[in-house]
Amino acid sequence: MKSKGPVIIVILLVAAVLIYQAAYTVSETEQVVVTQFGRIVGDPVTSPGLKFKLPFIQNANFFPKNLLDWDGDPGQIPTLDKTFIWVDTFARWKISDPIKFFQTVNNPFNAIGRLNDIIDPAVRDYITSNRLIEVVRNSNRVLDIAEVGREDEQYQRVPSRKIYIGRQKITEGILKQSQPKLEKFGIELVDVKIKRINYVEEVRQSVYDRMIAERKQIAEKFRSEGKGEAQKILGEKERLLKEITSEAYRKAQEIKGKADAESTSLYASAYGVDPEFYSFVRTLEIYRQNLGTNDTLVLSTDSEFLKYFKSLPE
Predict the structure, then answer these.
(1) Is the pLDDT of residue 158 over 50?
(2) For residues 285 and 266, what is the distance between their CA atoms, to the nearest angstrom?
(3) Buried b (16+ CB within 10 A) or exposed e, 21-36
(4) Sign of CA dihedral 74, 78, 83, 89
(5) 42 DSSP assignment
(6) Distance between CA atoms of residues 60 and 143, nearest Å
(7) How far apart are CA 130 and CA 133, in angstroms?
(8) Reduced DSSP (H G I as helix, E B as strand, rest coil) percent helix, strand, coil of the chain, to 5
């Protein structure tokens, strides 16, 4: 019995190796093509679960079953109206027939090369066969391109040039043209879309320059309108200031005139009581104004200017 122990262990190890080599699992996102010495054996395995194959002589080749992405290289393409643009496209595809796929391209990396060879020419063909507006727009909806500062320009709400195909139909055409060429590789092209469209560098720079010039024109318009409005406000301010000043001056002069009149009336009333006293006071004021320390005044002895000095007792 002791001599049979190592044999059983060897048998168990061999059985484990055989089971390990024979069993394989398929997930929900995978499909398998079983080959024997390079030849395909049976139908492809598309259902998930634990599967078995002949150990050592059969191989399980796994391929993705879910959607895969293809991202094309941006390229410079002229449109029908001779406008050079950069076009960047992408697509979604899947392996519809894993046997054809295995026999032709064998792996996803080679499949990407086939997609490049088929989709890129289709994109170029459709772009060069249509005008730029057909590639950019999907409908004939009137665009509202009104901008602040350009409301008075007539082309703010003008109908755009009419399109007959549109971007969506162009991508559908690319899909229809490419799909038959991919069927022999076991590939189904699910969708093709244009990711981005842009002018080439030379045209883009001229567009930017034109936009900058237009914005500078709008800015200058705002500046001139602002200066005009500022002058209008300053003029109105000066007018109101002069109006207020003149009204205040008028009222001040009226008050001053009334005050002078009242003052004169009071002086007249006061001095009218005693005219001789008034004459005396006025003469003293004249003395104070005209007779200074260094002043010299030559008068005759009978001058009226010194009549109050004459009346003084000796």
Answers:
(1) no
(2) 19
(3) eeebebeeebbbbbbe
(4) negative
(5) S
(6) 57
(7) 8
(8) 55, 20, 30
Q: Retrieve residue 88's tokens.
A: 């960047």
Query: What are the phi and psi torsion angles at 61 (to 5°)?
Result: -105, 115
pTM above 0.70, yes or no: no
Cα 10 to Cα 200: distance, rounded to the nearest angstrom: 71
Are 132 and 108 in contact by the 8 Å Cβ rule? The answer is: no
- Could you give the 3-state DSSP secondary structure of residue 48? coil
The pLDDT-based confidence of 9 (bands split at 50, 70, 90) is confident
DSSP line for 204-231:
HHHHHHHHHHHHHHHHHHHHHHHHHHHH
The better pLDDT of the pair 246, 278 is held by 246
Q: What's the whole-number mean pLDDT along residues 62-80?
A: 91
30-46 pLDDT, tens digit per residue, is 999 999 888 888 889 98
pLDDT score for 89 = 94
DSSP secondary structure string for all residues of 171-182: HHHHHHHHHHHH
Length of the chain in residues, anyone? 314
For domain 68-199, the CATH architecture is 2-Layer Sandwich (3.30)
